Every structure is written in structure tokens, then in C-alpha cells.
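A favour, since you know our C-alpha cells better than I do. What I am after is a single protein written out in full by you. Could you add the entry underneath, on a fresh line?


***
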Amino acid sequence: MKLLVRNLSRQMTEHEIRVLFTEHGDVTVCNLVLDQETGLSKGFAFVEMPNSEEAKAAMTALDHSSIQKSKIRVKLAKN
């Protein structure tokens, strides 16, 4: 199941996002989207979790949670 994570702190790293979601299950892919010109975070990422129950649990637990002073949004990514 592919999740879209928005409103991330610009300082948050791909590793930190992976660790955050791994607390709720197995993560196969974590992709922090970066600006091509500056190399800085655009404030959103995609996380893929193979187990849909774990992905739904992560979505429920993390949506609207405050991470590094940012209230993140987690929802199902549209393919």
C-alpha cells in the first residue's frame, strides 16, 4: 500500500520518515521528494508498506500527528 505523507518539516530526512513508519510495520520504500534545483525537501514523501493492515494502522496513528513541530498528513497515494 502506497501512502502520501504531506506537511513534513523541511529538515526531516528520509531515514527519519522510514523509522517513523517502521514503528507500525514493514516499510519497503520511502521516498522523500526533493527540489531538483536546491536539493532540499519539498515537504512530502511517499511510503510503501506491503501489509495493508499495517499501512492502515500507520495512517490512522500518524495522520494529523505533530512531528518536528509540523502537523503531518498521511493518506492513501493515488497511483
